[in-house]
Design goal:
The structure holds 2 protein chains of 2 kinds. By secondary structure, chain A is mainly alpha-helical. Chain A is about 75% helix and about 0% strand. In chain A, helix 3 runs antiparallel to helix 4. The longest helix of chain A has 25 residues. The model of chain A has no long low-confidence stretch (mean pLDDT about 90). The radius of gyration of chain B is 19 Å and the shape is globular. The longest helix of chain B has about 30 residues. Helices cover about 75% and strands about 0% of the residues of chain B. The chains are: A mainly alpha, B mainly alpha. At the A-B interface, helix 1, helix 2, helix 3 and helix 4 of A face helix 1, helix 2, helix 3, helix 4 and helix 5 of B.
Chain lengths: ~110, ~240
């Protein structure tokens, strides 16, 4: 092993604590302020915005040199959207969209 | 409580297909650097952060100091601060359960739990659902990390494209978010922020930069639209 076990344990501990701090900070800093109007506003409108950002982030490494870049992604996302609007069944939309994407990868 | 458990199993299934291959990629990478398999399990178990763990492999290879490890992890995961910010009212009661939910607030756990795709009548059932989703996602991640380190070098599945379950999940959740809020402005603000972040900053910092831009624009928008609050939605429902 390239690193001493006790050093690796410390390393993991530091990384785990740092990650936990980023997740726990708002709960500690804004303790008991969950009903503040600004927090309620953010609780409602931040999630939809972040969801779209996470979606866009998935495609940040899209290969733009390819012939018709983003075609497989676009068609598969459209499949997900249409199926979800029609059947309202998340697993069906996600499964079919992924299958569509995998088929277009091998094609 | 059974309803909460089966709902959590169904809602977290896309994460299973995203986390297992991603965790396996991490386990395989760590094992290839000469670490015994159980270190991958331990890291998945106590860190539970994809990007940070991949970064860890690089930091270990370059023999980085512990201060550097701490600071880099804080910066890399700082977007999680904004996840907690919008979960304050939803993670109400205290104790170990709340600590665990906060510990497990990854991108994917946040995306499921911040969408109101499930409404339970009792707060106990709501809490049980939150714990199941977080715990299941955690178990998928640990499974992936372990499998990758143990057998990653032996198997050659053709999993090309399987990672599409995560964008597909986010697409479904974008639709569900629109259905609950019935407002376009959060999405328009997000699009503007993403475009600005991609044009002005690097791809690697895009997510954090665009979240900060979105937060600022949302707060700015609220100042000019003082009537908009969560109460307007509830009255519509």
């Amino acid at each position: 092993m390239p690193v001493e076990p006790h050093h690796l344990l410390l390393f993991i501990l530091v990384m785990a604590v740092a990650t936990f701090i980023t997740r726990a900070a708002p709960f500690v800093i804004l303790k008991n302020r969950g009903d503040h109007p600004v927090i309620e506003y953010l609780g409602t409108y931040l999630p939809p915005a972040i969801m779209l950002l996470l979606l866009i982030y998935c495609f940040k490494d899209l290969d733009t040199n390819k012939h018709l870049p983003g075609l497989a992604e676009g068609v598969s996302l459209a499949t997900v959207t249409v199926l979800h609007l029609v059947f309202k069944h998340p697993l069906l939309s996600i499964g079919a969209g992924t299958a569509c994407y995998m088929l277009m990868q091998t094609a | 409580m059974l309803a909460a458990r089966s709902a959590a199993m169904s809602d977290s299934l896309p994460v299973f297909f995203g986390y297992v291959p991603m965790g396996m990629a991490f386990g395989l990478l760590l094992e290839s650097q000469g670490f015994p398999w159980f270190w991958a399990t331990l890291m998945g178990l106590v860190i539970f952060a994809g990007a940070a763990q991949f970064l860890a492999v690089g930091l270990l290879a370059s023999n980085a100091g512990l201060v550097e490890v701490g600071v880099t992890t804080l910066l890399l995961n700082s977007r999680h601060i904004f996840y907690g910010l919008s979960m304050l009212s939803r993670y109400q009661f205290g104790g170990w359960q709340k600590q665990y939910l906060i510990f497990g607030l990854t991108d994917e756990t946040y995306s499921i739990l911040s969408s109101r795709i499930r409404q339970f009548s009792s707060p106990q059932e709501q809490r049980s659902y939150q714990l199941w989703v977080t715990g299941l996602n955690h178990s998928y991640w640990v499974t992936g990390c372990t499998l990758g380190a143990l057998i990653g070098s032996m198997v050659h599945f053709n999993t090309a494209g399987l990672e599409f379950t995560l964008p597909a999940l986010f697409m479904v959740l974008v639709i569900e978010q629109y259905k609950t809020t019935r407002k376009w402005f959060p999405f328009i603000i997000a699009l503007i922020s993403a475009a600005l972040a991609l044009i002005l900053f690097s791809k690697s910092s895009m997510l954090l930069v665009s979240i900060i831009l979105t937060l600022s624009l949302l707060l700015g928008y609220r100042r000019y639209q003082p009537k908009i609050s969560h109460k307007t939605i509830e009255s519509k429902e």
